[in-house]
Amino acid sequence: QVALQFPDELLADAAEVAARMEAATGAEMYVLGDTTYGSCCVDEVAAEHVGAEAVLHYGPACLSPCRKLPVLHIFGRQPLDVRCCTEVFRELYPERQSCVVVLSDVVYAHAMGELEQQLCPEYPNVIFSKLVCGDPPGPAVPGEERKFGRQFLVKAAGGLQDYAMFYVGAEGLALTSFMLTWNRCPFSSFNPVTGCGRRETLHVNRALMRRLYLVERARDAGVVGILVGTLGVAGYLTVLQHLRELLRRAGKRSYTLAVGKPNPAKLANFLEVDIFVLVACAQNSLLDSSDFYRPVVTPYELELACNPAREWTGNYLTDFRDLLPGACAHVELPPAVPAAEAVPDVSLITGKMRATHLCDPPTSQLPPSTALACRDQTRALAEISPAASFLESRSWRGLEQQLGQTPICKAVQGRRGIAIAYEDEGCEQ
User: Fold this and answer.
1) Which cofactors does it use (predicted)?
2) Of 201, 227, 248, which one is at a domain's C-terminal end?
């Protein structure tokens, strides 16, 4: 039993592909018609519902490692004019000794070998990245980069910062993620659809300024919603537990929410939440939340806000697995600091004082039902529930019955019609 996962734009061909696969292999094929989260991720949950023993993933992919099922990626072969791409590369890098790393979208990976044959004789310092599905075996050697399913070895003495990046593909989330992660490297790109090349300014500085502003918003937040944006990427349960512990130690309350693909309408239902953190793959975690009622940050940005031991070094992390124990970028939580010894901090947004130290808050519990004294159940619930605490602070809490307080009167006929024009209202000409 094999699950075939197609993106929306390829679903029209799914039935024919499944029929041919069944005829050729004899295995039972199931088409995953839609995905709960981003189509670039493997939907292991839907595959397990049909008892699939393997998944064939068609179309663009983020190449995030999966937890359980074996996965085979079929990227497709989008056309690439290698000659035109070579000419654009020569125009962007006229110096033949330029140190450049060539990256590509997965749909153009089939043509990278031909492009390498064209460029390497002229550019001895050009490095072509290789696609790696899942975690590569063995530890990384010095100078080796393993990110976003790409693997390449940097030979320059100064490291990766001495290299420029050349991306083959259209503008999108993959390029944005690359540029934020390797923000010290100058980027240029070639769009195979338009046949044009350009130097990418991405407004990296503006994008980083926006993300650092969200870090400041996260420091001010009292209630954080943890959005589950994947159920298939390896390590997502570990990072959920890590974020919950981090928020508890930082004195913030948290919800864990599974709402599928986030949109403004869904998240606007949680008014008590001050900020959301999205646990998703490296491409989908950079959500543009400008249209949302509350901002959405990445796990790395939440760590910058709540973990005093993590400092901004200029290296941006979009893969949440880099934050887990054993990863190169993991930072242990520092010990708790008594409130009397904590150094106060001032918010750059509100100008108010706030606490930035980690503590060990006691776990609040509801009073037992056998308590002799009658207690305010709403207030007791508010001590542990962010929703109840938010509702308690509002001046209007809904309709109240007020039994015995409303005078008795006969029922009268009300207005008829629609709100824009009741029947007893005159029509203006």
Assistant:
1) [4Fe-4S] cluster
2) 201
**Strand intervals (E) in 249-388:** 253-257, 275-279, 296-297, 345-346, 353-354
Greatest extent of the chain over all pairs of C-alpha atoms, in Å: 95
Select from 283, 286, 237, 277 the least CA-distant residue to 257. 277
Q: Which amino acid is at 146?
A: R
Residue 267 lies in a domain: yes
The CA distance from 363 to 248, in Å, is 10
Q: How far apart are CA 352 and CA 272, in angstroms?
A: 20
Same domain, residue pair 64 and 136: no
360: in domain: no
- Local structure of 126: helix, strand or coil: strand
Tokens 């001590």, located at residue: 383
Q: What is the domain extent for residue 43? A: 2-74
Q: Supply the pLDDT for residue 368.
A: 46
Number of folded domains in the chain? 3
pLDDT in tens, 82-109: 999 999 999 999 999 989 999 999 999 9
Please report which helix (H) or strand (E) contains residue 102, including its range: strand 100-104
3-class DSSP assignment, residue 73: strand
